[in-house]
């Protein structure tokens, strides 16, 4: 009996020990899971802060190219408001940004010397002033300096560096460097000698801006957007397309600029608030707060009408567009006076038709950027075909005239010979 009792006690003790062991495993397992879940959440939040996502829309305007933009700032969620108060520029994020972007980083002294102590200003935008600079290697660049009261802020600065570190296309402005030093944030771009499309269209100085150049600019912009929507992985939505953010090089080739509001087309589960520039914003985005690539298409439609009319969106452009839509040739009435009598009206109407489709109230009925690029290219090819035909006809006429002249010379020479023989 005694032995039986001992065995019972040993069995109970072993059972208790095993129970305690199992309970400990469960306890520490739960703690481990919670800790790693917390770390994953922190990592995700840090990634969201380090590499923001892009979308085109209404809200904070980032006009680094011209002063014509009117921006609307709408407060986002409490989460964004709190996170925006935190400075992302810790030493860890500095190194992460530099390694992720692959874009050269310069010191404040480098930029101060290149800009000759910030003496040559090119323009002023909501981001801050833009200066002309000559780098040590001899290249001319444009330096955007983040103003202390800028609405764009450090988050958009980081977005631009992160995105342009991996986005490269002939119709996107090239970011060649950046500077974070002595409390200053600067972006260094290739120099675009002909400034912004907005400045060219609305400058008080009379400048010759031909229809051929405008058509090519429309095609260039479409190619830049097409790369963002269809070529980038994941797709990128610009979110602030406007004439002030279209820059022109020395050959008048257009490049899309200013990616501070841009986002990658992936769902992050957060409401980022309305962002963009008044006059270019998709009305559907305003009502739904949902931004897609078709919102970029709407903004591009506005730019196309700017190229046709030279009327700024802040000057009731949409009213003119709606009036012109009442008749087939209505766009002729709002054509830029510089183009009157100097362009093919059929081409103007074709481009206006494309622009009208971009502005369709239902986003799903708007064409894709690939379809738009193809349609603009067809207008340009049609023009080139006509020019080639006219040139060929002109050359044929010249050859015929030349042959007649040669024949007349030969006849005169034969007549002269006959006269000498007769004598």
From TrEMBL:
Annotated ranges, domain Protein kinase: 116-384
State the InterPro entries in the record.
Answer: Kinase-like_dom_sf (IPR011009), Prot_kinase_dom (IPR000719), Ser-Thr/Tyr_kinase_cat_dom (IPR001245), Ser/Thr_kinase_AS (IPR008271)
> Recorded GO terms, molecular function?
ATP binding; protein serine/threonine kinase activity
Q: What Pfam families does this protein map onto?
A: PK_Tyr_Ser-Thr (PF07714)
Keyword annotations for this protein, in alphabetical order, are: ATP-binding, Kinase, Membrane, Nucleotide-binding, Serine/threonine-protein kinase, Transferase, Transmembrane, Transmembrane helix
Q: Does the keyword Lipid biosynthesis apply?
A: no
Q: Which SMART domains match?
A: S_TKc
Q: Where are the transmembrane segments?
A: 6-30
Report the protein name in the record: Protein kinase domain-containing protein
Q: Which organism is it from?
A: Nyssa sinensis
Q: What is the lineage of its organism?
A: Eukaryota, Viridiplantae, Streptophyta, Embryophyta, Tracheophyta
């Amino acid at each position: 009996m005694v032995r039986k009792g001992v065995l019972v006690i040993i069995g109970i003790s072993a059972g208790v020990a095993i129970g305690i062991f199992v309970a400990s495993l469960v306890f520490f397992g739960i703690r481990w899971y919670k800790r790693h879940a917390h770390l994953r959440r922190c990592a995700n939040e840090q990634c969201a802060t380090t590499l923001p996502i892009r979308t085109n829309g209404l809200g904070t305007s980032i006009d680094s190219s011209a002063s014509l933009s009117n921006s609307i700032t709408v407060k986002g969620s409490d989460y964004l408001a709190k996170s925006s108060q935190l400075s992302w520029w810790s030493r860890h994020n500095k190194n992460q940004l530099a390694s992720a972007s692959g874009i050269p980083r310069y010191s404040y002294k480098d930029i101060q010397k290149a800009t000759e102590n910030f003496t040559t200003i090119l323009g002023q935008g909501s981001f801050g002033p833009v200066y002309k600079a000559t780098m040590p290697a001899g290249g001319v660049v444009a330096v955007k300096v983040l103003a202390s009261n800028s609405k764009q802020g450090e988050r958009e600065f980081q977005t631009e560096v992160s995105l342009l570190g991996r986005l490269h296309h002939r119709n996107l402005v090239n970011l060649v460097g950046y500077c974070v030093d002595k409390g200053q944030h600067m972006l260094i771009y290739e120099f675009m000698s002909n400034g912004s499309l907005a400045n060219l269209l609305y400058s008080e100085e009379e400048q010759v801006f031909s229809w051929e150049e405008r058509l090519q600019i429309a095609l260039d912009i479409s190619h830049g957007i097409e790369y963002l929507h269809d070529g980038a992985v994941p797709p990128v939505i610009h979110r602030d397309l406007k004439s002030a953010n279209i820059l022109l090089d020395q050959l008048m080739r257009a490049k899309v600029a200013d990616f501070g509001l841009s986002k990658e087309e992936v769902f992050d589960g957060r409401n980022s608030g309305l962002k963009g520039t008044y006059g270019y914003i998709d009305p559907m985005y305003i009502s739904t707060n949902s931004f897609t690539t078709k919102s970029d298409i709407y903004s591009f439609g506005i730019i196309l009408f700017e190229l046709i009319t030279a009327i700024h969106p802040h000057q009731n452009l949409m009213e003119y567009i709606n009036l012109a839509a009442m008749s087939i040739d209505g766009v002729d009435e709002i054509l830029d006076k510089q183009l009157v009598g100097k362009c093919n009206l059929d081409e103007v109407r074709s481009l206006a038709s494309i622009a009208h489709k971009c502005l369709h109230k239902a986003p799903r009925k708007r064409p894709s950027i690939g379809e738009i690029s193809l349609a603009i290219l067809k207008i340009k090819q049609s023009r080139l075909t006509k020019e080639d035909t006219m040139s060929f006809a002109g050359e044929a006429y010249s050859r015929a005239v030349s042959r007649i002249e040669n024949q007349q010379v030969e006849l005169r020479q034969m007549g002269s010979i006959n006269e000498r023989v007769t004598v």
